[in-house]
Amino acid sequence: MRILLSNDDGIHAPGLKSLIKIARQLSDDIWIVAPETEQSGASHSLTLTQPLRIRKISSRKFAVRGTPTDCVMLALNQIVTDRKPDLLLSGVNRGGNLGEDVTYSGTIAAAMEGTLLQVPSIAMSQVFRSGGHPHWSTAEHHAPALIKRLIKAGWGKDVLINVNFPDVPHDDVTGVEVVRQGRRDFANAVIDDRVDARGVPYFWIGFRGRNGTPDPKSDLGAVERGAIAVTPLHMDLAHKSSMTHLRKALGA
């Protein structure tokens, strides 16, 4: 099995080191194409206004001065060209990609691009609380067997798999739950306004380190219980019931 690895935390991220350990338990045909610098929050963005540069680190490891989407696109069209990968793994992200996070996440975006290019793709994230340290060993311990089970089960060609590992030691994981994408019950973003040394205002966008009261049947609820949350995400964003309603309303 040929596996392509990418992320949004960058080529030097500790989560990528964990992802390499995971992938090596599945195959020895591993290719790594990741951003040169951190691209958290880049979502599914493409670099269109400046050139993209590829830095070859080793025979199968490359850094791209661009977004996660750029990395996957270049990987499949310029770098790994003799045979398409059988699987794309994105992550392991430093922090969860839960609920509405998936709309901002570069980790999810790499898996989206893989899916669009017809490579089965899994995004993986290690949840941790602000001020703490990620339990990388939790993802490293549980991911290989979970990935094998997912591959055996299979999933739709227009679907990517979003996996979030809970913020607990690997021995304390309560199980695997297949759950829907949740939604936080409060605005999670915080805008911190400051003033620089010249008296000019500037802003930092950040996030609160809590999830509120999550729906127990959601990804947020699963990781809160110490379970690994597995959520299939569909690339078709069209809302079917709204289409039916609007066709009737508009006479279309």
3D structure, described in words:
It is a single chain. The protein is built from six helices and eleven strands. It is α/β, with parallel strands linked by helices and 252 residues long. The protein has one domain: Stationary-phase Survival Protein Sure Homolog, Chain: A. It is globular.
Q: Could you provide a short overview of the structure?
A:
The protein is of the alpha/beta class and 252 residues long.
Strand tally:
11
Q: Return the average pLDDT rounded to an integer.
A: 94
Tell me the distance between the termini.
Answer: 47 Å
**Strand-residue fraction?**
25-35%
Q: What structural class results from the helix and strand content?
A: alpha/beta
Helix content: 25-40%
CATH architecture identity: 3-Layer(aba) Sandwich
Round the Cα radius of gyration to an integer and report it.
Answer: 19 Å
Instruction: State the shape.
Output: globular
List segments where confidence is low: pLDDT < 50 over at least 5 consecutive residues: none
Order of helices and strands: EHEEEHEHEHEEEEHEH
CATH 4th-level superfamily: Survival protein SurE-like phosphatase/nucleotidase
Strand order of the largest sheet: 3-4-2-1-5-6-7-11-8
Please give the count of helices: 6
CATH level 1 class label: Alpha Beta
Q: How many distinct domains? A: 1
CATH topology: Stationary-phase Survival Protein Sure Homolog, Chain: A
The profile of the biggest β sheet is: 9 strands, mixed
